[in-house]
Amino acid sequence: MHIYAERFFMASKYIGVYETTLKDGSMSYRSSIVFCKKHIALGSFETAAKAHKAYEQASRIVKDPSWTLSKYRKGTTLPFEKCVVLVNFRDNHMYIPTPIYLQKNYFYYYLSQNNTLKFDIDDLFYYSMHKIMQRGSHLFVADYGSQISIPSRYGIKSYAVRGRDYDFVNGDPTDFRYENIVILNRYNGVRQISENGFIKYKAVIHVKSNYVVGKYNTENEAAIAYNKAADILMKKGIGKKYALNYIEDLSASQYAEIYTNIKLRKTIENMEV
User: Fold this and answer.
1) Model pTM?
2) 3-class secondary-structure state, position 113
3) Of 251, 245, 171, 173, which is closest to residue 213 (Cα–Cα)?
């Protein structure tokens, strides 16, 4: 009778908590809450008391519309990303397992309380299924065993330089909405330049240093000129494999014609490697 009473007391005291055994045999305490008929896991904790504390904090969040993410304080038992999930579910009636807060036509992805990214609503499905991670300034997701860079999903190459190869219209590098990203140079070795008031495209290839292949009127011509220079250098035995450009908007015959007729600076054609 005494044992039964003690178990009943513990169950009542630590509502929303159940214990599990880890692989090493130690005990862990998981916390969860049911809100709008949805069972939401809150995490695992070292003690039943901490797990219950997380449950109490989650309960307060879903019941109090005045509780906002700005009220989160360091040291809170409930992880911040779980707070984002709960606040979004409470306010927008959509459960999303990653730390996303919905707006009308876009959403915020919270890397931390003071570090957010902004995306178009078209990307909601992808980021609701993929957790964004950060290492230094590198933002990426794990996708089928590979690391996919966040900027690369928007046409920003790994070697790209902001202001030269791409830019953000509103100046905010955390705003990845499509309308805010401008790709200035889509191709390897191609740079957009202004010359006498006209836009031109300069093809540059790296050997021991950067060599100018030539200047061209169109981006496609510059990209093909870079490819031709790379082919020449590799045939000469430079011992380096260049990533060539693929031009989607040209047919094979159109590409071949430009490739055959495009002129390169003699420094490339006569270069010793």
Assistant:
1) 0.78
2) coil
3) 245
- Enumerate residues 6+ apart whose C-beta is below 8 A from 14: 29, 48, 49, 51, 52
Q: Residue 139's beta-bridge partner residues?
A: 134
- The tokens describing 241, both together, are 């494999």
Which residues pair with residue 200 across a beta bridge?
Answer: 193
Which strand (E) or helix (H) includes residue 9?
helix 2-13
Both tokens of residue 60? 């307060």
pLDDT tens string 56-112 = 999 999 999 999 999 999 889 999 999 999 999 999 999 999 999 999 999 999 999
Q: Contact at 8 Å (CB) between 229 and 213?
A: yes
* pLDDT tens profile 211-262: 999 999 999 999 999 999 999 999 888 888 888 999 988 999 999 999 999 9
- Those residues whose C-beta lies under 8 Å from the C-beta of residue 200, and which sit 6 or more positions away, are 192, 193, 194, 215, 216, 217
Count CB neighbours of 144 within 10 A.
5
Tokens linked to 131: 């957790």
Tokens of 130: 């993929």
Q: Is 248 left (phi over 0), alpha (psi -120 to 50) or beta?
A: alpha
What is residue 36's DSSP assignment?
T
